[in-house]
User: Fold these one by one.
Assistant:
Number 1:
Amino acid sequence: MNIEEWEAGVPQEIRDDSLWKMESYRLGLFLSDLAWVDAGKLLKDVRSAGMADQLCRAVSRISASIAEGYSRGTGKARATFYEYALGSTRESRDWYYKGRHVLRDKVTTHRIKLCTQLIKLLIRMCSNEQQQNIRLTRVSRVR
């Protein structure tokens, strides 16, 4: 399944939310659906069964943290949740690498690239929110 096909199946109520405009949220949500299938494969091998749970937990926190951060009123609070999402994305990439012995090379490469794309977006988001917080702090000091 590619992201365009997947997006068509996402409920309209989610796609109508302004949060949906954030690429990082959409990619995180897409990755969580992919991880659901991947975890099923990991569960079939006793050596990677524990990874399945860890992968699902890490991946599911990505879009959830972005959603929570998006809903916060200050740049500092948003940055905190975007940093949580960043940590969860890096953890997910780590679990995907470890699961490469069970998952096909093509699947592992795709998931690692998707995580890396998300990491780059989240680093930029964190930086933007932190810079906004610095500017606001400076303005409030001048007043």
Number 2:
Amino acid sequence: MARVVGINHVALAVGDLDEALSLYARLFDFELRGRSARMAFIDMGDQFLALAEAGAASPDAERHFGLVVDDREAVRQAVRAVEEVEELPSRRESLDFRDPWGNHFQVVDYREIQFERTSGVKGKLGISNLEKSESAKAEIDSRGIS
């Protein structure tokens, strides 16, 4: 079984991206990590909140959350063994699935992402032996969070 070790990101569907950013700026002190026409990314250190402008789309079209695990492939095997779970098309670095209630999970491997745990937390989670990939290390270094 794979151990859950954290959250990579949370995506929220919003009706209007500019209005949402304006509202959140009134509630929180944050830096904008990036933005496109229909997406904005609020920086949270080594994690982020994604805002997706849904417009006329279904309110759940963009809603999902990223879950960090120590063994993504173990989760993939478990998903494929459970009939009630629908595996969804995924990018190479993630595993996506929807549970019977419509919740969209995007599972990523701790070794492949910039999300970093302290040695104490890693020890408690039993992941002290997990080493970051070279690309994840480079992203951590480039962000100044190493």
Number 3:
Amino acid sequence: MLKSAIIKIHTIRDRIKRLADYAINPDKTEQGEMTSVLNLDSVATASNEMDATKDYWDKIYGVQGYHIIQSFKPGEVSKEQCHEIGRTLAKRIFGDEYEVIVSTHLDKSHCHNHIVANSVNRLNGKKFRCQIGTYYNIRDVSDAICLENGLSVIDSTKESSSKHYAEWKAEKDGNLTIRQQIRNDIDELIPQAHNFRYLLRWLEDTKSYEIDIKGKYPKVKPPFAQVWIRIGPKLGKYYTQDELERRIEQSMDRQERRTAPTYRPMSHYYKVLTRKRPKLTYYQRLYWHYVYLIRRIKKRQTPPKLTKYMQAEIWKLHRYQKQYLFMREHNIVGWEDLAQIQTDILAKMENLQSERTELYKSRRVEPSEEKDERVAEIGQELKTLRQQAKLCEYIKEDAPTIEKRLARITDERQHLQTERTKAKSVGVQYR
């Protein structure tokens, strides 16, 4: 393995502002000259912007962020080169999706970078998953950047020298290899597996892998590959059968420890209880609850045997979410509001189409860039309005159906609760 810089990763579970203030400390960064941000407005407002992103996506609890430390040997890099390498590392790991602070500390004999990243994706609200494999991925990216900058490296080990040239070239270019995708799939499923065979079954059931457990090493064939890949040393040091069994056991131990109640100060509960929640109208609540139920089914930890009807509802989940957000944005209370908004949208579309027709005629006589730009703007506005008009039609179609289905679910739950109460009164366990 290439190891020209040392990488450490820490999970931030308390306020991210504490780590942000430490990272941008003026005494360590030459009065803030060696600090910068990615996907943020400024260093001064970075922690507030990160908190605002969490609040917007309602992800204010759990892991707050990640703290990556990248250290170099004394005299190996200049402070400017160190900071640029840190920025490149943050850009390749987090891209345009996560908010990041990058600072270079010069208070010690060696230059080192502090990278503080928000755990919540600013574009879709998903959280960054940091697992055992993630550390090695980040370390490999750091090593590749150091090699590109001509920094010193140690001799390659037997494992790295046995890589196929195509795989080495793909990793150097930052592309995803077949083995890396297999490692990512294994990392994703380890927290859900109870043993090694269960892990293989999960790969087969949820990822459509082909499995062969004959011979010395188990083999897998993912749907995106034409060859079999051994679960052995060539896949990676931490992806042999023995290592995977050890990682699964550690994951199960961590899950058991998480079940123990943790102490939280009273201020935390006060903040939860006093936080203002937006008031939802009847149909907004209806959609929210239905989407919540479908997402619970989708995220179930064992592969469910779903009916074709429920599979169709899961496929429509994104459509229902769009309808819910559209109703919240336009504060739709009832059918009258929906009809009025749809009428306004159609009227705007008619006016824009008339304006575009006039521009077409005028442009034939007297062409100009301004007219071309306006035609392009109208095209984008019409595209958005057509999507909104389509959403209105979907809401008319779906809302009554959702209302009936939720009523049926509620009736079934009440019936089940009644039967359990009756059975309990006579000393019988009802399932």
